[in-house]
Amino acid sequence: MRALETCLYADDLDAAEAFYTAVLGLTLHSKVAGRHLFFRLEGSMLLIFNPQASAQAGDVPSHAGKAGGHACLTLPREQTDEWEAKLRGHGLEVTRYAWADRGESLYFCDPAGNVLELAPPSIWGLE
């Protein structure tokens, strides 16, 4: 098995859309204004829900959550320095953490306060 979807929450979907497209360069797959944003990743999807709207009953089970979650997206090991500079260039505070010889993670927050991480799969021995 592998993860097909990762879900985070944001009260301001306009700010989330701007951040995930402009800063991270993700491709928006679809959206419903005021409810959710769906971004295509390599082999999976990143779903950003407005917590109030997604808690309402609908055709699918509600997604009741709140901002403050965590997601880690893959990063080629050789691009760590480049991505750190890019994130800092967007005014983000970045924490860099070394996992011994397995690689390094870059931690930062999106506008909603979700903690994001960019890391090579090798931190989990997946390369």
Could you provide a short overview of the structure?
By secondary structure, the chain is α/β, with parallel strands linked by helices.
What does this structure look like?
- The protein has 127 residues and is α/β, with parallel strands linked by helices.
- The chain has a single domain (5-124), classed as 2,3-Dihydroxybiphenyl 1,2-Dioxygenase, domain 1, CATH 3.10.180.10.
- The chain is 20% helix and 32% strand.
- The longest helix is centred in the first third of the chain and has 11 residues, at 13-23.
- It is globular.
- The two termini are 17 Å apart.
- The model has no long low-confidence stretch (mean pLDDT 91).
> Low-confidence stretches at least 5 residues in length (pLDDT < 50)?
none
Tell me the overall shape: globular
Alpha carbon gap, first and last residue: 17 Å
Can you list the strand order of the major beta sheet?
A: 1-4-3-2
CATH architecture: Roll
Radius of gyration over alpha carbons? 15 Å
> How many structural domains in the coordinates?
1
CATH homologous superfamily descriptor: 2,3-Dihydroxybiphenyl 1,2-Dioxygenase, domain 1
Oligomer: single chain
Identify the CATH class. Alpha Beta
Task: Please give the number of β-strands.
Answer: 8
- The amount of beta strand, in percent, is 25-35%
What is the overall number of helices? 3
Q: What is the average per-residue confidence, as pLDDT, rounded to a whole number?
A: 91
The string of secondary-structure elements, in order, is: EHEEEHEHEEE
Domain VOC: 2-121
Organism: Deinococcus xinjiangensis
Pfam families: Glyoxalase (PF00903)
InterPro entries: Glyas_Bleomycin-R_OHBP_Dase, Glyas_Fos-R_dOase_dom, VOC_core
